[in-house]
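User: For my dataset I need records formatted as: sequence, then structure tokens, nothing else. Please produce one.
Assistant:
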Amino acid sequence: RLVGSEMCIRDSLGVLVKGNDMPFDACARLLYGRGLTTMVMLGAGTSMEPGLDGKVVLITGAGRNIGRATALMFAEEGARLLLSTRHSGGQLDETAEACKAAGAEVSTVLCDVGDREQVTEMIKVADDVFGGVDVLVNNATSRVQGSFLKTSPEQWRTTMAVNLDGPIYLL
């Protein structure tokens, strides 16, 4: 349960779901039932309603697709952003520039969320640059392209590190 917190989920159609003390499994069913994969967890007192101005938002997987769209949404709301991605520094820079054009203060960092040491370093950047994080958008994901039966042990471990270990390291 996200006790004492508000959880907000906005899909690509702009639908917003909010709930206080909502059981995590109910949120997950709601998300995955709609084909969504990104959860936005907001700390107590933080809301997607007016009031994000100046809040620090850390977005993983921010270089493209849902991560980029989420970053732009938060930038338009006046949030200060720490954007990360594992690879694709060029795409991350493009997202950062678009967010800056929307008026946001932005910092970027390359980070593999499946690597605990890299996550620790990213959190240090957040503390040094912004004084901490108010909102985490854990959007980073990894998947193997192609046949599951041809997945190598290294590919499987990378997928599990990013998708399972990463969210725990970010807590």
